[in-house]
Amino acid sequence: MQKVLISKLEMLLIKVVFCRTIEEAKEKVGLFFGNMMKNF
Length: 40
Description:
Blueprint: H1 2-39
């Protein structure tokens, strides 16, 4: 039971970190393209 709980918590943590990383990457890409569009 304990092992199942731990693995579920780990999965949740990985999902949260992964989602945050994707959001940050999206923001960086958005800023990058925004700056490129301004230059044109």
